[in-house]
């Protein structure tokens, strides 16, 4: 991670309420190129709300968002955010259950498709070249995620852990500049978590993706993340390296538990 550069993504003083509930109360954070940053906190702390504000699912009541040094509107459609280069996975699976693995990942290439309807219809010129490129990209992701054996299986018939891997593949297919992962390991067993952690690290280290993730498994967070932001009741209470977060008394009291002070990150 090169902290000498300007942040790739910056949110400043974000406020958002739902009725009388203050979901985010003046939260600011920065994401630097090439880092893995985690957003952690108790349930209801505002973690997913922050990702929803970043990718346009929610519109913040106040604040500013900058991407690659340029301010972008608070009110913006998620597909426009995706076109800018910010891709997203969700807490709850959002796959097309009747489509096979290959087709679900190809859906992630939609923002990369530029040929017009006519050329697509006759499969000529730019359309032919694009389809070859898209197919090659999908095949590479399938190989990267080691899911060759399920490439033609309907995703609705796959075990939960493999469905989460397919969703990660679909997010990677858009070749994002920033990858937002909302609890990518939720509901997984230990082996499945280790696999996903390895793929996240490889995507960061080998491909160079900048990654922001929400995750409750503190062992994973402490092992793979460069920096951690901690939210509690919509407020940012801490930010720093894994070692700094482990020893932060506010974090220990709000989330990690007293055991963290003795070296455990449960």
Span between termini = 26 Å
Uncertain runs are 116-120, 258-266
Fourth-level CATH superfamily of the largest domain: P-loop containing nucleotide triphosphate hydrolases
Helical stretch count? 10
> Rg from C-alpha positions?
19 Å
> What's the CATH C level of the largest domain?
Alpha Beta
Report the strand count: 10
Order of helices and strands: EEEHEEHEHHHHEHEHEEHH
* Secondary-structure arrangement, i.e. CATH architecture of the largest domain: 3-Layer(aba) Sandwich
Proportion in β-strands:
15-25%
Structural notes for this entry:
The protein is an alpha/beta fold. The chain has 2 domains: 1-85 and 176-266, Rossmann fold; 95-174, no CATH class. It has 10 helices and 10 strands. The protein has helices spanning 47-54, 78-84, 101-107, 117-122, 126-144, 160-173, 190-207, 218-224, 242-246, 249-256, and strands at residues 9-18, 21-31, 36-40, 62-67, 70-72, 86-88, 178-182, 210-214, 227-232, 235-240. The strands form 2 sheets. A 6-stranded mixed β-sheet has the order 6-7-8-3-9-10, with helices on both faces. Strand 1 (9-18) and strand 2 (21-31) form a beta hairpin. Helix 3 (101-107) runs parallel beside helix 6 (160-173). Mean pLDDT is 88; it is low at 116-120 and 258-266.
Could you provide a short overview of the structure?
The chain has helices at residues 47-54, 78-84, 101-107, 117-122, 126-144, 160-173, 190-207, 218-224, 242-246, 249-256; strands at residues 9-18, 21-31, 36-40, 62-67, 70-72, 86-88, 178-182, 210-214, 227-232, 235-240. It is an alpha/beta fold and 266 residues long.
